[in-house]
Specification:
The chain contains nine helices and eight strands. By secondary structure, it is α/β, with parallel strands linked by helices. The protein has a six-stranded parallel β-sheet with strand order 2-1-3-4-5-6, with helices on both faces. A two-stranded antiparallel ribbon has the order 7-8.
């Protein structure tokens, strides 16, 4: 039994920006920035059907800390890190195994490890099945590292069906990873590489059609 958790993020805003951010006029912007983590949907797509998978997006629903799971998987960006660590600490105290991944954990794995049984660094496609196997065998390793860039043509269809449609007006569709521009303030090039990789047109169209059918 696996829980995939998207922790609530934090916005650091001055009073004027906070007024704008919380106003009705910016509702569309808030919703567009509150899409669920694509990484969690990919993890669900990588997980065999024999597992029971539950997606929890804390931007829209509360986490039931009394519910037990065999594995808690948390994906986080930096603005989610503080809350992600709080969530992880609670579940670990209850005896659940916790794995943390995402860009922040990839850049600062030792920090993330203080709050998790295991840290996934980099892309999950070549790692996740090993994480599940080691969880079953009670032999989780401290760190799992993606050794090479993933061939996105082999990446599974994200489990869009796990999303509750009443929560989202916008659903993100990932088409590429990697960026050649390498801005000094952005970690994307460091994590995903300088060479852009892309899904096939067939994959992208299939994903869009699947979302529309939902």
């Amino acid at each position: 039994k696996i829980a995939l958790i998207n922790p609530k993020g934090e916005q650091t805003l001055d009073k004027k920006m906070k007024f704008f951010w919380e106003g009705i006029s910016s509702q569309f912007l808030r919703q567009s920035l509150s899409g669920c983590s694509s990484a969690l949907l990919v993890l669900a797509g990588l997980t065999p059907k024999s597992y029971k998978v539950k997606l929890i997006d804390e931007n829209f629903e509360k986490i039931d800390f009394n519910e037990r799971h065999d594995l808690i998987a948390i994906s986080m960006m930096t603005q989610q890190a503080c809350r992600a660590y709080e969530v992880a600490d609670v579940f670990r105290k209850k005896g659940d195994k916790v794995v943390i991944g995402g860009i922040h954990a990839t850049v600062l794995p030792n920090e993330a490890k203080e709050h998790a049984d295991s840290v996934v660094m980099g892309e999950a496609e070549g790692i996740w099945n090993k994480v599940l196997e080691d969880t079953r065998n009670n032999s989780l390793k401290p760190f799992y590292i993606s050794e090479k860039p993933v061939d996105l043509a082999k990446s599974p269809m994200p489990r869009y069906d796990l999303l509750r449609k009443e929560y989202y007006n916008i659903i993100w569709v990932q088409t590429t990873r990697g960026c050649p521009i390498d801005c000094e303030f952005c970690a994307a090039s460091k994590v995903f590489g300088l060479k852009p990789r892309h899904k096939t047109i067939r994959q992208v169209v299939k994903g869009i059609k699947f979302i529309k059918n939902l």
